[in-house]
Write a structure and sequence with these properties.
The chain has 69 residues and is mostly helical. It has a domain of 40 residues. 33% of the residues lie in helices and 0% in strands. InterPro entries: Kynurenine-oxoglutarate_AT (IPR051326), PyrdxlP-dep_Trfase (IPR015424), PyrdxlP-dep_Trfase_small (IPR015422). Belongs to the class-I pyridoxal-phosphate-dependent aminotransferase family. Its EC number is 4.4.1.13.
Length: 69
């Protein structure tokens, strides 16, 4: 079965977004890309402790969402 699918007209010309930047940089630096999805392993203890402190101290900027266009 062949599908003729093309992007919506409203996104023509938009070829950059934060996900493209994350993926490109992660590949370039051989880093773990946490920009999309969730890891399938537990983070190190020191990182969990730091994140716990950030959450407890009420850092409102702490979330999993990126800025929109």
């Amino acid at each position: 079965m062949v599908f003729n699918i093309s992007p919506a007209k409203r996104i023509e010309g938009i070829d950059k977004n934060v996900w493209i930047e994350f993926t490109t940089l992660a590949a370039e630096h051989k880093a773990v890309n946490l920009g999309q999805g969730f890891p399938d392993f537990s983070p190190p203890t020191y990182l969990k402790e730091i994140l716990s402190k950030l959450v407890v101290n009420g850092d409102e900027m702490m979330n999993q969402y990126t800025r929109g266009f």
